[in-house]
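Regression report. Comparing outputs from two consecutive submissions.

Submission 1:
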Amino acid sequence: MKILNVEQIRQLDAYTIENEPISSVDLMERASNGFVRWFCNQFVNTRPVCVFCGKGNNGGDGLAIARILASMDYHVNVYIVEHSTDASADFQANRERFKNSVQPNSIRTAADFPEIAPETVLIDAILGSGLSRPAEGLLADVINAINNLTNKTISVDIASGLYADKPNDKNNIIIKPDHTVTFQFPKLAFMLPQNALFAGEWHVADIGLSKDFIRNAQTPYYFTEKQNAEAIIKPREKFSHKGTFGHALLIAGSFGKMGAAVLSGKACLRSGAGLLTMHFPACGYDIMQISIPEAMAVPDKNEKYISELPDLESYSAVGIGPGLSKDAATVKVLEQLLDSVKVPLIIDADALNILSENRFLLDKLPENTILTPHPKEFQRLAGESKNEYERLETGRQFAVKHKVVICLKGANTAVILSNGEVHFNSTGNAGMATGGTGDVLTGIITSLLAQKYAPADAAVLGVYEHGLAGDRAAVKKGQSALIASDVVDCLGW
């Protein structure tokens, strides 16, 4: 799914209106019906509803939604925030359609804000995605009043006060919805942690905008859904053998951190690699042989950390980093690896920190190497950012400059390709915010690289399947009880 900016969505609406053809107000009706379909699946008509409308097109959506809900026997109250003497044409058209339905109320001052029963569901249709300046005055008063209530709040298309594709100032007044029902596409704002309070759980309502326009629209931003990920998966042939699915090498572990190596190795095998060799400090030999009997064990001569690079001749992909140390000898091993590796490579954890502390190594990164930093590791690699929008752009510039793939980990992990494209992930949950899950991701992607998936595909699919396994684990264990081993156990596709 593409993620388009506000101007592109405006052009898409206009193109659909002209070429379907359909009138603007009837397209609004279609969008409102899409919202109502979702709403009726969540809230029965015994729940009272209160709709807050601005005077632009988002308010027009709100009026149409209120009218449709009222026709379905919902008890609906409508409040129009009179923040302007002007109103959009579609707002006015829907107000005309509204005449034989519920009588709207006006909010002209903060004192006009109504008393609302706690069981009432609030619908926010005050300001839409075309917002160009912060909410002030009466708008800010109404938004603050809504936020001070404990009622369930649903935003139409986007939370009022939230910019769709640029950062808000920390002092901006923004609705904090429980849910957002957005039209046709998610907004870029929904993908970024700084906006979590202002998106809630978001849902896409397909409103039938022009597929031709969408197909041809240019954007660096995409959202990976089930069908996108499954299209990447290579089917297994009947007469395959273990050599068909590659031989992965994982260089991992140090004294006290062999668990990271074990998690990564198990995830690599669970993700379909035909063969796996683990290279680790000698202290981990018994641990490795007992924990992963399916893997071949090649201990380092050093007892506590990696000090030598094994012969790379027989491997089809290499992963390095889980549980690694930053000992001087390990730094030298990473440099040797970068100078000699001829197969796809993924770098994680302390191997990333070694790159940050020895920046000359960045120039040695083979093209399409995959880096899997969490936000702090990325900050050490690429520098500080004022906000997540800037960090995302920094990631794009870094990936293009160094010709690498970056998996910037977090909710909606951003897979940034070497051409600057960003693929946000749709799977995963907060239970995965626990030690070791990053090591699992490294193992998954190493396995896919060993199976000859292109690095971009391995990163997008690996991140998706990692999150999907986490979602399965959360169903079994609950998010609070989830640990990284549960994610490994739930891998499979």
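Submission 2:
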Amino acid sequence: MALFTSAFAQLDLLRQPEQANEPLQAFDAADEYLLNHLHGQGLAADSRVLLLNDHFGALACSLAGHCRLTSSGDSHLGFIALQKNLERNRLTADSVTFVPASDSVSGPFDLVLIRVPKTLALLEEQLIRLHGQLAPGARVIAGAMLKHLPRSAGELLEKYIGPLQASLAVKKARLLFVTPADKPAVRSPYPTRYQLEQPPLQLLNHANLFCREGLDIGTRAMLPHLPRSLGPLRVADLGCGNGVLGIVFALANPAAELTLVDESYMAVQSAAQNWRAALGQRPVTIRADDGLAGQAAESLDLVLCNPPFHQQQVVGDLLAWRMFTQAKAALVRGGELWIVGNRHLGYHGKLKRLFRGVEQVAATPKFVILKAIK
């Protein structure tokens, strides 16, 4: 049990995805600092409050019932955590309105609380969207652990919102108090686009996408080795990002039935737009999900995956291992999981613990492309 205590509530909170003997908490000192400061300043019950990037619902669950609350973020796992933590603490689901980061929030808001995200492009997009959404006299407060608070985050807050004052550090956390100023509307630099040479595709990337300025080198290593002309297979691009693996595979396999899945709402939004641009009205399933948790057992013939090695600022193979186990459950017997990974991550050994056969399809000095057979 991980109890989170603030001036507003004492809560039992879970991270997502859940794991046995979880070593990490669903909250940190920045959450506590934000809430205790807010309690000291006072919060009217009719205040319209916007939370941005509340990782696992610590802020939302603490403030539920104390104000009119909207929470927005780009993680579907974060949304699942919010739902579970509301229920776990006997809080009503309708006490928080959740808006995916792929959609715009609707103000005006009296208070905006921001957890500074790892991807500052996401912060920039969120700040640009706040234009015209702040009520007169609105307060904007950002919080982060010192080790995750670059100077450029404060510069973005000053650029798009107004003058900034930093707090003293408490428990290695800091708050940034921003006074909204009369700023002109700004055209967002997102989404970005880049050109893929082979096959010739222009790929669109919303603000929170990994490698949004160009194709990541792992995917680049995998693309030439994707199987072609396989017939009417059921195929998933797991952790699809902008959809490039699934789209390139679909172009080379006209009879295949594709499902593209990611836990980032902006990734799903990007993948859907890229699919339509490349493949028009060809049928496809594209969804935000906890990997393949929502996929029926033994319903896929092939899974393609470039697994992540981090969740927010936490580095590790938890998400990759979870993807491998989900893929095994979703594949038919004889079905295949194709992955690309850094050599040093040792995915070959991990996959051999799950699958009856693992083959190396190709390799570069940095990456291996592996095929695991159920």
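Expected: both submissions complete independently.
Actual: both completed, but the second showed a warning that disappeared on reload.
Relevant detail on submission 2: The domain at 192-373 is CATH 3.40.50.150 (Rossmann fold).
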